[in-house]
């Protein structure tokens, strides 16, 4: 027997425990256009942020910052100052990786190194195709595009830089 009742919306909640910190996310409202998420770090309420309603937040945890993102919306938590601020991006974010006090963002058609303290992009690699997958091996970032072509970047610590290596073809 089937029901004609509409599906009930399930409120989004998540608790992430990393590096002796607890990040709690709780949806406080949702409409057809946006969802609003309340954020706590170590039981301290930091505020709320909003995402387009089809996106659930992704989370990255580094030594000094926690980042939350969905689509082009990037929010930064300063772990020492317990503050939440926005750092909007020009294109959808696929992943965010900490590199010392900077971060490497893999976006839809580019890869950037950002300084979250200053909210600046320090280096950018623009690409001509949609990026699909990414993985790390040591200090190397491997990224595949929509057609399966793989790009390799040597990303060192200290002052990270996107030094592009040769194309590789892995299965």
Summarize the structure.
The protein is mainly beta and 171 residues long. Helices cover 0% and strands 58% of the residues. The chain has strands at 13-18, 21-30, 34-41, 44-52, 58-61, 65-70, 73-78, 83-86, 93-99, 102-107, 110-115, 120-126, 131-137, 140-145, 150-154, 163-164.
Describe the secondary-structure layout.
Blueprint: E1 13-18, E2 21-30, E3 34-41, E4 44-52, E5 58-61, E6 65-70, E7 73-78, E8 83-86, E9 93-99, E10 102-107, E11 110-115, E12 120-126, E13 131-137, E14 140-145, E15 150-154, E16 163-164
Antiparallel strand pairs: 1-2, 2-3, 3-4, 5-6, 6-7, 7-8, 9-10, 10-11, 11-12, 13-14, 14-15, 15-16
Describe this structure in words.
- The protein starts with 12 loop residues before the first strand and ends in a 7-residue tail after the last strand.
- The chain contains no helices and 16 strands.
- It has 171 residues and is mainly beta.
- A hairpin with a 4-residue loop joins strand 7 and strand 8.
Task: Give structural attributes.
4-stranded antiparallel β-sheet; 58% strand; disordered C terminus
Q: Helix and strand succession?
A: EEEEEEEEEEEEEEEE
Any idea what the radius of gyration is? Answer: 18 Å
Mean pLDDT: 88
- Approximate helicity band: under 10%
Shape: globular
Overall number of strands: 16
Query: Termini distance?
Result: 45 Å
- Given helix and strand content, the structural type is mainly beta
Q: What is the assembly state of the chains in this entry?
A: single chain
Q: What is the tally of helical segments?
A: 0
Strand order across the biggest sheet? 1-2-3-4
Give the low-confidence spans.
167-171
- Approximately what portion of the residues adopt beta-strand conformation? over 45%
Largest sheet: 4 strands, antiparallel
């Amino acid at each position: 027997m089937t029901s004609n009742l509409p599906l009930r919306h399930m409120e989004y909640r998540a608790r992430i425990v990393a590096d002796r910190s607890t990040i709690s996310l709780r949806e406080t409202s949702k409409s057809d256009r946006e969802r609003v998420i309340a954020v706590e770090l170590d039981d301290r309420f930091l505020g709320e942020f909003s995402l387009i309603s089809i996106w659930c937040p992704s989370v990255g945890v580094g030594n000094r910052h926690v980042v939350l993102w969905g689509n082009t919306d990037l929010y930064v938590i300063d772990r020492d100052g317990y503050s939440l601020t926005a750092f909007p991006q020009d294109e959808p974010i696929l992943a965010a990786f900490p590199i010392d006090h900077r971060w490497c963002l893999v976006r839809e058609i580019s890869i950037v190194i950002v300084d979250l303290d200053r909210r600046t992009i320090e280096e950018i690699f623009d690409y001509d195709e949609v990026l699909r997958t990414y993985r790390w091996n040591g200090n190397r970032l491997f990224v595949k595009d929509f057609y399966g072509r793989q790009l390799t970047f040597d990303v060192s610590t200290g002052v990270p830089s996107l030094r592009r290596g040769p194309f590789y073809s892995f299965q």
